[in-house]
UniProtKB/TrEMBL annotation:
Listed Gene3D superfamilies: Uncharacterised protein PF12112 family, DUF3579 (3.30.70.2340)
InterPro entries: DUF3579 (IPR021969)
Superkingdom of source: Bacteria
Pfam families per the UniProt record, alphabetical: DUF3579
Protein name, UniProt field: DUF3579 domain-containing protein
């Protein structure tokens, strides 16, 4: 079975020299800036939720922003903004494929 092609880029809140990136709400701020970039474009009230293409999360205790590859196709400048943010702040970046959560086991 072939490994899935990476569909997302994970911008991690750890610098390349291993320090935790500050401020502590950086992931929410970045995702908030990107909230207008979404399938179907900006809709009334869409500024109140994160774009499905740029979502803050915590993985193994590390704040991250998961940037979906679909953003690159829809808005190349927004994609570049996210990657330049990571580069300019010396953040670790990994390409991966976010796997869905398994369904809960029935009792």
């Amino acid at each position: 079975m072939a490994a899935p092609t990476p569909k997302q880029v994970f911008i991690q809140g750890i610098t390349r020299d291993g320090r935790t990136f500050r401020p502590s709400d950086w992931a929410e701020r970045l995702a908030g800036v990107m909230s207008g970039f979404r399938p179907g474009g900006v809709q009334p009230g869409s500024h109140l939720s994160y774009s499905p293409w740029c979502v803050p999360t915590v993985i193994n205790g590390v704040k991250c922003v998961v940037v979906n590859g679909d953003l690159r196709e829809a808005e190349p400048m927004a994609w570049d903004f996210c990657l330049n943010f990571a580069r300019d702040n010396n953040l670790q970046v990994a390409e991966a494929c976010l796997l869905p959560e398994p369904p809960p086991k029935k009792a």
